[in-house]
Amino acid sequence: MASSQTVPVTAFKAEQVKWLYRNLGAALLGGGLVATILTVALWPVASHVLLGGWLAGILAVSLARFAVARRYWAAQPLSQDCEVWENRHLAGVAVAGIVWGSAGLLLFSKESIEHQVLVAFALGGCAAGAIATLAIRLEAWLLFAVPTMLPLTLRFFYHGGETSLAMGGMMTAFVVLLTVTARTTRDTLIASLTLRLEKQDLIADLTASKERVEHLNEVLVKDLALRAETEKEL
Questions:
Q1: Quick check: 159 and 204 in contact, CB under 8 A?
Q2: How many angstroms separate the Cα of 154 from the Cα of each of 104, 120, 130, 188?
Q3: From CA 193, how far away is CA 213, in angstroms rounded?
Protein backbone atom coordinates (compact mmCIF):
# COMPACT_ATOMS: atom_id res chain seq x y z
CA MET A 1 0.00 0.00 0.00
CA ALA A 2 1.24 3.48 -0.77
CA SER A 3 2.64 5.34 2.17
CA SER A 4 0.82 8.33 3.57
CA GLN A 5 3.42 9.10 6.26
CA THR A 6 4.32 12.46 4.74
CA VAL A 7 0.69 13.63 5.09
CA PRO A 8 -0.87 14.33 8.51
CA VAL A 9 -2.93 11.32 9.59
CA THR A 10 -6.04 13.36 10.45
CA ALA A 11 -6.00 15.15 7.10
CA PHE A 12 -5.53 11.89 5.24
CA LYS A 13 -8.33 10.17 7.16
CA ALA A 14 -10.65 13.14 6.58
CA GLU A 15 -10.09 12.89 2.82
CA GLN A 16 -10.83 9.17 2.87
CA VAL A 17 -14.10 9.78 4.68
CA LYS A 18 -14.99 12.58 2.28
CA TRP A 19 -14.40 10.20 -0.64
CA LEU A 20 -16.77 7.63 0.88
CA TYR A 21 -19.58 10.14 1.34
CA ARG A 22 -18.96 11.84 -2.01
CA ASN A 23 -19.67 8.59 -3.89
CA LEU A 24 -22.55 7.41 -1.71
CA GLY A 25 -25.40 9.04 -3.63
CA ALA A 26 -24.66 7.30 -6.93
CA ALA A 27 -24.18 3.96 -5.16
CA LEU A 28 -27.55 4.23 -3.41
CA LEU A 29 -29.33 5.19 -6.61
CA GLY A 30 -27.78 2.32 -8.55
CA GLY A 31 -28.47 -0.15 -5.78
CA GLY A 32 -32.11 0.88 -5.53
CA LEU A 33 -32.50 0.44 -9.28
CA VAL A 34 -30.93 -3.03 -9.23
CA ALA A 35 -33.08 -4.08 -6.27
CA THR A 36 -36.25 -2.92 -8.02
CA ILE A 37 -35.38 -4.75 -11.27
CA LEU A 38 -34.53 -7.92 -9.33
CA THR A 39 -37.83 -7.74 -7.46
CA VAL A 40 -39.79 -7.44 -10.70
CA ALA A 41 -37.84 -10.31 -12.29
CA LEU A 42 -38.39 -12.63 -9.32
CA TRP A 43 -42.06 -11.73 -8.82
CA PRO A 44 -43.41 -14.80 -10.68
CA VAL A 45 -41.32 -17.34 -8.71
CA ALA A 46 -40.73 -15.90 -5.22
CA SER A 47 -42.99 -15.09 -2.29
CA HIS A 48 -44.49 -11.66 -2.77
CA VAL A 49 -44.29 -11.04 0.97
CA LEU A 50 -40.57 -11.86 1.04
CA LEU A 51 -39.89 -9.86 -2.11
CA GLY A 52 -41.78 -6.82 -0.85
CA GLY A 53 -40.15 -7.02 2.56
CA TRP A 54 -36.69 -7.39 1.07
CA LEU A 55 -37.14 -4.45 -1.30
CA ALA A 56 -38.57 -2.34 1.52
CA GLY A 57 -35.51 -3.20 3.61
CA ILE A 58 -33.14 -2.15 0.82
CA LEU A 59 -34.95 1.15 0.32
CA ALA A 60 -35.18 1.85 4.06
CA VAL A 61 -31.46 1.28 4.58
CA SER A 62 -30.69 3.42 1.53
CA LEU A 63 -32.82 6.29 2.82
CA ALA A 64 -31.17 6.08 6.24
CA ARG A 65 -27.69 6.16 4.70
CA PHE A 66 -28.71 9.09 2.50
CA ALA A 67 -29.93 10.97 5.57
CA VAL A 68 -26.58 10.37 7.29
CA ALA A 69 -24.78 11.66 4.20
CA ARG A 70 -26.89 14.83 4.19
CA ARG A 71 -26.02 15.41 7.85
CA TYR A 72 -22.34 14.89 7.06
CA TRP A 73 -22.27 17.49 4.30
CA ALA A 74 -24.36 19.92 6.34
CA ALA A 75 -22.06 19.55 9.35
CA GLN A 76 -18.82 19.93 7.34
CA PRO A 77 -16.97 18.19 10.18
CA LEU A 78 -13.42 19.05 11.18
CA SER A 79 -10.63 16.57 10.52
CA GLN A 80 -10.56 15.44 14.14
CA ASP A 81 -14.25 14.51 13.95
CA CYS A 82 -13.96 12.35 10.85
CA GLU A 83 -13.71 9.06 12.76
CA VAL A 84 -17.26 9.45 14.08
CA TRP A 85 -18.61 9.95 10.56
CA GLU A 86 -16.50 7.11 9.24
CA ASN A 87 -17.97 4.73 11.83
CA ARG A 88 -21.48 5.82 10.85
CA HIS A 89 -20.71 5.15 7.22
CA LEU A 90 -19.19 1.73 8.00
CA ALA A 91 -22.25 0.80 10.06
CA GLY A 92 -24.49 1.69 7.13
CA VAL A 93 -22.33 -0.31 4.75
CA ALA A 94 -22.48 -3.39 6.99
CA VAL A 95 -26.27 -3.21 7.37
CA ALA A 96 -26.66 -2.75 3.61
CA GLY A 97 -24.47 -5.79 2.98
CA ILE A 98 -26.57 -7.91 5.35
CA VAL A 99 -29.84 -6.87 3.70
CA TRP A 100 -28.47 -7.46 0.21
CA GLY A 101 -27.03 -10.81 1.28
CA SER A 102 -30.37 -11.93 2.69
CA ALA A 103 -31.57 -12.19 -0.91
CA GLY A 104 -29.32 -15.23 -1.28
CA LEU A 105 -31.43 -16.99 1.36
CA LEU A 106 -34.89 -15.46 1.10
CA LEU A 107 -35.13 -15.19 -2.69
CA PHE A 108 -33.35 -18.42 -3.65
CA SER A 109 -35.54 -20.40 -6.06
CA LYS A 110 -34.86 -24.14 -5.79
CA GLU A 111 -36.80 -24.92 -8.96
CA SER A 112 -35.41 -22.22 -11.27
CA ILE A 113 -31.72 -22.21 -12.10
CA GLU A 114 -32.26 -19.13 -14.26
CA HIS A 115 -33.51 -17.14 -11.29
CA GLN A 116 -30.69 -18.45 -9.10
CA VAL A 117 -28.24 -17.10 -11.67
CA LEU A 118 -30.15 -13.82 -11.77
CA VAL A 119 -29.78 -13.37 -8.00
CA ALA A 120 -26.09 -14.28 -8.21
CA PHE A 121 -25.60 -11.80 -11.05
CA ALA A 122 -27.30 -8.99 -9.11
CA LEU A 123 -25.37 -9.61 -5.88
CA GLY A 124 -22.07 -10.09 -7.68
CA GLY A 125 -22.62 -6.93 -9.67
CA CYS A 126 -23.30 -4.94 -6.51
CA ALA A 127 -20.15 -6.29 -4.85
CA ALA A 128 -18.09 -5.49 -7.93
CA GLY A 129 -19.57 -2.03 -8.33
CA ALA A 130 -18.91 -1.24 -4.68
CA ILE A 131 -15.17 -1.42 -5.35
CA ALA A 132 -15.31 1.96 -7.08
CA THR A 133 -17.03 3.64 -4.13
CA LEU A 134 -15.64 1.79 -1.09
CA ALA A 135 -12.20 0.44 -1.95
CA ILE A 136 -10.40 3.51 -0.62
CA ARG A 137 -11.13 1.83 2.72
CA LEU A 138 -10.76 -1.89 2.11
CA GLU A 139 -12.53 -2.58 5.40
CA ALA A 140 -15.60 -0.78 4.09
CA TRP A 141 -15.72 -2.89 0.95
CA LEU A 142 -15.28 -6.12 2.91
CA LEU A 143 -18.06 -5.11 5.30
CA PHE A 144 -20.36 -4.89 2.29
CA ALA A 145 -19.09 -7.64 -0.01
CA VAL A 146 -18.71 -10.49 2.49
CA PRO A 147 -22.28 -10.43 3.89
CA THR A 148 -23.59 -9.78 0.38
CA MET A 149 -21.92 -12.77 -1.25
CA LEU A 150 -21.47 -15.32 1.55
CA PRO A 151 -25.10 -16.43 2.13
CA LEU A 152 -25.76 -17.20 -1.54
CA THR A 153 -22.41 -18.95 -1.91
CA LEU A 154 -23.15 -21.19 1.08
CA ARG A 155 -26.68 -21.78 -0.21
CA PHE A 156 -25.31 -23.10 -3.51
CA PHE A 157 -23.00 -25.51 -1.70
CA TYR A 158 -25.80 -26.61 0.63
CA HIS A 159 -28.24 -27.12 -2.24
CA GLY A 160 -25.91 -29.66 -3.81
CA GLY A 161 -25.91 -31.00 -7.33
CA GLU A 162 -23.33 -30.43 -10.03
CA THR A 163 -24.72 -27.10 -11.16
CA SER A 164 -25.13 -25.67 -7.67
CA LEU A 165 -21.67 -26.83 -6.58
CA ALA A 166 -20.20 -25.30 -9.72
CA MET A 167 -22.04 -22.05 -9.00
CA GLY A 168 -20.76 -22.08 -5.41
CA GLY A 169 -17.20 -22.63 -6.64
CA MET A 170 -17.46 -19.81 -9.17
CA MET A 171 -18.92 -17.48 -6.55
CA THR A 172 -15.98 -18.26 -4.26
CA ALA A 173 -13.45 -17.64 -7.04
CA PHE A 174 -15.27 -14.43 -7.97
CA VAL A 175 -15.08 -13.12 -4.39
CA VAL A 176 -11.35 -13.89 -4.26
CA LEU A 177 -10.83 -12.07 -7.55
CA LEU A 178 -12.87 -9.10 -6.36
CA THR A 179 -10.83 -8.93 -3.15
CA VAL A 180 -7.57 -8.79 -5.11
CA THR A 181 -9.05 -6.11 -7.37
CA ALA A 182 -10.28 -4.13 -4.37
CA ARG A 183 -6.81 -4.23 -2.78
CA THR A 184 -5.19 -3.02 -6.01
CA THR A 185 -7.78 -0.26 -6.38
CA ARG A 186 -7.26 0.74 -2.74
CA ASP A 187 -3.51 1.08 -3.26
CA THR A 188 -4.00 3.16 -6.41
CA LEU A 189 -6.54 5.47 -4.76
CA ILE A 190 -4.39 5.98 -1.67
CA ALA A 191 -1.32 6.73 -3.78
CA SER A 192 -3.30 9.29 -5.77
CA LEU A 193 -4.79 10.84 -2.63
CA THR A 194 -1.40 11.03 -0.93
CA LEU A 195 0.14 12.72 -3.97
CA ARG A 196 -2.71 15.26 -4.11
CA LEU A 197 -2.39 16.13 -0.42
CA GLU A 198 1.39 16.43 -0.68
CA LYS A 199 0.94 18.72 -3.67
CA GLN A 200 -1.51 20.87 -1.71
CA ASP A 201 0.94 21.09 1.20
CA LEU A 202 3.76 22.02 -1.17
CA ILE A 203 1.67 24.77 -2.79
CA ALA A 204 0.70 26.08 0.65
CA ASP A 205 4.38 26.15 1.73
CA LEU A 206 5.44 27.91 -1.48
CA THR A 207 2.66 30.45 -1.12
CA ALA A 208 3.63 31.15 2.47
CA SER A 209 7.31 31.49 1.48
CA LYS A 210 6.40 33.87 -1.32
CA GLU A 211 4.38 36.03 1.06
CA ARG A 212 7.26 36.12 3.54
CA VAL A 213 9.72 37.13 0.81
CA GLU A 214 7.36 39.85 -0.44
CA HIS A 215 6.96 41.15 3.10
CA LEU A 216 10.73 41.23 3.61
CA ASN A 217 11.15 43.06 0.30
CA GLU A 218 8.62 45.68 1.38
CA VAL A 219 10.44 46.15 4.67
CA LEU A 220 13.78 46.39 2.87
CA VAL A 221 12.47 48.96 0.37
CA LYS A 222 11.07 51.10 3.19
CA ASP A 223 14.33 50.81 5.10
CA LEU A 224 16.37 51.86 2.04
CA ALA A 225 14.04 54.77 1.39
CA LEU A 226 14.35 55.88 5.01
CA ARG A 227 18.14 55.70 4.87
CA ALA A 228 18.19 57.69 1.65
CA GLU A 229 16.12 60.48 3.24
CA THR A 230 18.37 60.47 6.28
CA GLU A 231 21.49 60.81 4.13
CA LYS A 232 19.93 63.71 2.21
CA GLU A 233 19.18 65.54 5.44
CA LEU A 234 22.78 65.07 6.54
A1: no
A2: 9, 12, 21, 32
A3: 30
